[in-house]
Amino acid sequence: MRFQAAVLRELEIVARKIRLRAYGSRKLDGAFSAVQRSADKKRIAQLSRDVAAIFRRDPFSAAKYVDFPIWLLRNIHRAAQLGLHEASGLRILDIGCGPGYFIAAARALGHECRGIDVPNSWFTPLELQVYSELLQALNCHQYVSPLSIERFVPLPFHGEQCDLITAFLVCFNRHDKPDQWGVPEWRFFVEDALRNLREGGRLFLGLNDNRKRFGKLLFYDDELLAYFQSVGTVNGARITIVNKLPAMKGSPAAGSWSSISA
Ligand SMILES: C[S@@+](CC[C@H](N)C(=O)[O-])C[C@H]1O[C@@H](n2cnc3c(N)ncnc32)[C@H](O)[C@@H]1O
Q1: Ligand 1, atom 16: nearest CA belongs to which residue?
Q2: Is 81 exposed, middle or buried (0-12, 13-18, 19+ CB in 10 A)?
Q3: Could you identify the atom of ligand 1 that is nearest to the CA of residue 148?
């Protein structure tokens, strides 16, 4: 089984490199080496040794993130799918940024990317160890703020608009919990997120699957799917919603983009 996993991993690496090459973008071609050059590889190697036993027991735990090449390639690919190699200087907020690979990829492509994730005290010891070590090793810890997304609570930094808000492998919707978000929570979140985007800015959600709850649809029930389709485009797990309204004027009481820092 371990042999099979190793083969699949190598195949994924080759496939992702081919797919990234197909974009024909020098920026994308250079992103992997740019992050690799500046990353603290010794620190990642040490972390990898520290959590190796946990990874063997539970390959789906946060220990999976120590596989630097795979996760960096996945995140450069995410950035490519969002067209981030075709622009520069975008203000991007990554919600639930975890170990920070997407922040590192987006910054390597020339964007002003910041992240939020839950406060340290909410992480399991393994998540805390893996996320904080990787954020440090990727030089991204200074771009991450502790902030938890809660149902029916607005984001706290209206005032300066983002060009793009992302959330990959979304968990802030209480994924897999009995009180996983339904349409009212998502509607509130989406409308609030759009208020933090400039006109034409995008909200991208990469949903986690939940077969137990959603059956064949995997990511939503019919009602939630209809809601996402009514506000944006849906492609399996991938939801893209464009802000069609003029950007909101800032509220003096609220925080700002530049205040999203640790
Ligand atoms: C499955 S991980 C995905 C990490 C990263 N986005 C990726 O794709 O590799 C989900 C992340 O969402 C974060 N998260 C969970 N609940 C959250 C909440 N209420 N607010 C903000 N982040 C949350 C977790 O701490 C974790 O970092």
Answers
A1: 172
A2: middle
A3: 20
Instruction: Report how far residue 128's alpha carbon sits from residue 63's, in angstroms, rounded to the nearest whole number.
Output: 11
User: Is the distance from the beta carbon of residue 217 to the nearest atom of ligand 1 less than 6 Å?
Assistant: no
Report pTM: 0.95
Which atom of ligand 1 lies nearest, measured to the CA of 131?
A: 27
**Average predicted confidence (pLDDT) for the chain:** 94
137-176: per-residue pLDDT in tens? 999 999 999 999 999 999 997 666 999 999 999 999 999 9
Smallest CA separation from ligand 1 atom 3, residue: 169
Q: Phi and psi (nearest 5°) for 36?
A: -60, -40
In 3D space, the residue among 257, 47, 26, 30 whose CA is nearest the CA of residue 163 turns out to be: 257
What's the Cα-to-Cα distance from 114 to each of 3, 11, 82, 141, rounded to whole Å?
A: 37, 31, 16, 10
Annotation: CATH topology of 2-260: Rossmann fold (3.40.50)
**Which helix (H) or strand (E) segment is 32 a member of?**
helix 26-38
User: What is the identity of the amino acid at 176?
Assistant: D
Q: How confident is the model at residue 250 (pLDDT cuts 50, 70, 90)?
A: low
Atom of ligand 1 nearest to the CA of 208: 1
With a 6 Å cutoff on the Cβ, whether 98 touches ligand 1 is: yes
E strand or H helix that includes residue 74: helix 68-81
Tell me, in angstroms, the distance from the centre of ligand 1 to residue 112's CA.
20
Nearest C-alpha to atom 1 of ligand 1 is from which residue? 169
